[in-house]
Amino acid sequence: MIDRPAVRIVEVGPRDGLQAIEEIVPTEIKIELIKRLSTTGLRCIEATSFAPQRWIPQLADHDAVMHAVREMQDAADTSSVRYSVLVPNLRGLLAAADAGAREVGVFVSPTEAFSRRNSNCSVKEGLERAREVTQKARELGIHVRGYVSCVFSCPFEGPTNPHDVLTVAQALLSMGCYEVSLGDTTGSGTSAHVRRLLAVLLKYIPAHRLAGHFHDTYGQAVANAVTAYELGLRTFDSSVGGLGGCPYSPEAKGNLATEDLVYTLEGMGIATGVDLQKLADIGHWINEKLGKPEGSRAGSAIYSKRNTVPAKTSPGCQPTMTWTMVKQDPEYQLLRNGSTVKIALDRPRNGNALTRTMLTHLTTLFETLSKDPSVFHIVLTGKGKYFCTGMDLSGGGATAAGADAASKQAQFDGLYKLFEAIDRTPQTTIALINGPSYGGGTGLAFVCDIRLAQANATFTMTEVKLGLCPATISKFVVREWGVGIAREAMLTGRTVTVQELHRVGVIHAITSSSSSPSFSTAVVDGSQPNLDRLLQHHLDKYLRHAAPQASARTKELVAAAWRYTGDDRQDKVIKDVFEWMIAPSEEAQIGTKAFRAGKKEVDWYGVYQGRKSTTDNDGQGRKSKL
């Protein structure tokens, strides 16, 4: 291993990572996050902030968090960890001191606009506040760390003058801060910006008194940290799972992920003292708790490699597609193959009937996947002989027909939210219909964009036979089947075959006895492996040549045609998409260039995988957008 000086990592996830999240995170989750991070080898953790609740509602529970931190400070196994808190003024310092804080951070912006928006004061006033805090903290025996925000660019003023950063950094050090962290709040910095800034600062400030705090908005955080290291910095701020952002800088997406930083530095032979495996587990855990996609490429790859197992297949009949199990829930499986995710309902003994818990979990899952740019296609299927038999109407179930009014309302809300989440996801959704479906299961199939089915699949809406109505699903069944077919099927409650719907173009492909796959048929018999082959045929022949962003915008056009036919709102959507297209988008540039070169099709999987910002080869994690 190369003999290089070790670095010091300041973990800011519990404070900077959580502060911009709108939905309040339970205090016990915050405390558990800090406890877990304390076992990884990290020696500096930002725990919370003592800013007023009206500024940062997310961290209003700072007293409760610090009560737990005090116990950690006194515990033998975590006593060597330094826990810091951010304070905006003298009042915040005194509250932090009362709560047992032993280290605080003060922050100042070098630009007037950001200072007034973030701290409601001028730069000069901000420095004076910091001076008051530092002076009092030293009297109390509390260490003080300084933070300078917007060191490269201000979201309100534009590029930041390096000499303005120097002025603030020198002032913080002179008043007693032991170190100054340089914050790229907007995440707009590049290696060139780092070199330009440090060329000014290092003339007057020793490198060991500076730290790098890089946001990853444009995917430059790791490169910026490496550049800063080569120029002499040895302390870096980062956030587990890439959590973070700034409420006053809307474009700032997240911090440098601690997993990515540790992976990079250790790969360079630079000791961090951090257990990367533990860190990856924590990153996965906290993002799952928050319902957010993975924010660390390295962490996602490490977690997936260590925790996933191959999906089970039928003996003697290996599907063409190989799926990796991402999550095994008691009621569903989440699997992945490259840019395609498959959700398999996993209640085969109950016909994959939907429970209220399933509705909630599946809705959250679709909402999370909709924000993950590395996912191009979402497949929905079932385990066993049924696709989905609708809501669980068992006598003892919470969704039973005889349930009380509150339960009925919860059932309606759950169904409605799930169907809306699927309908509005920007990715192309595919129903892989493995068998018969009833009631709400039929709705699940036809809320999806594309339907591929086994030859024995059927659809039955038996609600009228039970004295019920197909209320929630009617919106999507009528939309996809057409009024005539849907009306007759709903009023009679009869079983509709997949062949009948295939003839009118509602089902887009089915398995059959044909020996060669085509748009309408694929491979032999109706087994699940052959349904997977039908899916792969559709993906390889058609969808891999459909640009993902263009596909998402096309879905907007289709949705507008259904929701706003003839309305001004439809015209607005058309205009917005047209302007995006002719801007031109980068996808349009790539596609046009290929067409002019004589290429009829573009392999969009290859285009995205070829980017430096893509994830590992098995696709377990996020990819940044084009």
TrEMBL record:
Residues 7-280 form the Pyruvate carboxyltransferase domain. Its EC number is 4.1.3.4. Keywords: Lyase, Metal-binding. GO terms for molecular function: hydroxymethylglutaryl-CoA lyase activity; metal ion binding. It holds the Pfam family HMGL-like. GO terms for biological process: ketone body biosynthetic process; L-leucine catabolic process. Pathway: Metabolic intermediate metabolism; (S)-3-hydroxy-3-methylglutaryl-CoA degradation; acetoacetate from (S)-3-hydroxy-3-methylglutaryl-CoA: step 1/1. It comes from the Eukaryota. PROSITE patterns: PYR_CT (PS50991). SUPFAM superfamilies: Aldolase, ClpP/crotonase. The keyword Transferase does not apply. The keyword Lyase applies. It catalyses: (3S)-3-hydroxy-3-methylglutaryl-CoA = acetoacetate + acetyl-CoA. NCBIfam families: PRK05692.1 (NF004283). Belongs to the HMG-CoA lyase family. This is hydroxymethylglutaryl-CoA lyase. The lineage of its organism: Eukaryota, Fungi, Dikarya, Ascomycota, Pezizomycotina.
